[in-house]
Every structure is written in structure tokens, then in C-alpha cells.
Amino acid sequence: MLKKMKAVGLFQGLPITESTSLVDLELTIPVASGQDVLTEVIAVSVNPVDTKLRQNTAALTEARILGFDAVGEVVSVGEDVTKFAVGDRIYYAGSAQRQGSNAAYQLVDQRLASKAPHNISAAEAAAMPLTALTAYELLFEKIGFVAEANANSGQTLLVINGAGGVGSIAIQLAKWAGIEVIATCSPKNNDWVKKMVLMQ
Length: 200
Hints:
- This protein is α+β, with helices and mostly antiparallel strands.
- Helix content is 24%, strand content 26%.
- It has helices at 48-56, 122-126, 129-143, 165-176, 190-197; strands at residues 4-10, 23-28, 36-44, 64-65, 70-77, 89-92, 105-109, 113-115, 156-159, 180-183.
- The strands form three sheets. The protein has a five-stranded antiparallel sheet. It has a three-stranded antiparallel sheet with strand order 2-1-4, with no helix packed on it. It has a two-stranded parallel ribbon with strand order 9-10.
- Helix 4 links the parallel strand 9 and strand 10 (180-183).
């Protein structure tokens, strides 16, 4: 008999006030093959993209599980997996083309994951992947700064909303890369942003 797992998903994008905007599900636990690892999900975070997908998904015949960022423990690996082993704690951003992390178990391509840091909690680590990827891609792929420690001496960056998720990571990555940072924020977040901007 196939083992089952609990998940939360949707069949159609609806306002959150609708009782069926998110539904409890019982689904078959997927099987890892190829480049996939199967994780037992430990922690997830909610991103703006989750909200947009929940609101705008067209009617479906099969439930869609939302959720991108997650921390999970590897419980099985596909035959082509070389990066991880059973028992590893990993974090990842998942993919919009696959079922998400709002489930007890999730398949994720090993190429989209890394070992989770042990100096922060699972919940803290689950909040990192999409914001960190967005900040990294913005700085080093879109703007074109050099992604090496102290490699951008003499460069200056203005970060709007420096206290936000992406802004906070962008400041820290920019400082690591040797960029002088100027940032905006609301008065209540001034101490937090100033601390990051002035770090050596």
C-alpha cells in the first residue's frame, strides 16, 4: 500500500476569505528518482509569490500545493543524486513547475538545494532562499557587480527598503563584495539598517 502524507493546497485561485481557498489534502508520498531528493519538510516560509498564486490560479482538476522556501531532511535520493545523502538537512527555493513545500514531504531537484546552515534555526533558514537568490541575482547577474569578497572597491549602491527581506540580504552581500551602501528605511528600522550598512 502506498504511504500517504498531509498537505495544504488549492484547486482554484480564490480570495482568502473563501473557505476553500486553501484545503487540507491527503496525497501519496512521492518517490525520488533521477536528480530528485525526497525531503521530510521541517519548516517553510510564505512569500508574496505564494499569495499571488493562491489568488490567481485557474481552476484545476488536480490539487496544487504551494510553497517555495523550505528546510527539510533528506529521506531518500534518486539514482543520479551525488550532492546529498539521507539524513542531510537542506534548504531550497523549489520550483513553480512542481508541487510546493506546504506538505509533509516534497521532491526537490538537488541542483536547487544546499545544506542548511546549522547556526540558525530551521525557521530562520526557511526564510532565506528566495530573498537571498533575488538579492544575489540582482547584484551580480543583473547589475553586474563582481561576486567576490571586496572585489568592487569604489562602487556605491542605493538600496531602497533596506529593512525588507531582499533589501537586508542585498546590503549584506554588497558589503561582502566591497560595495559602499546607502539604504532607505522607515524610522522604526533605522537601527537595524544602520547596523548592516556600517558593518565591516
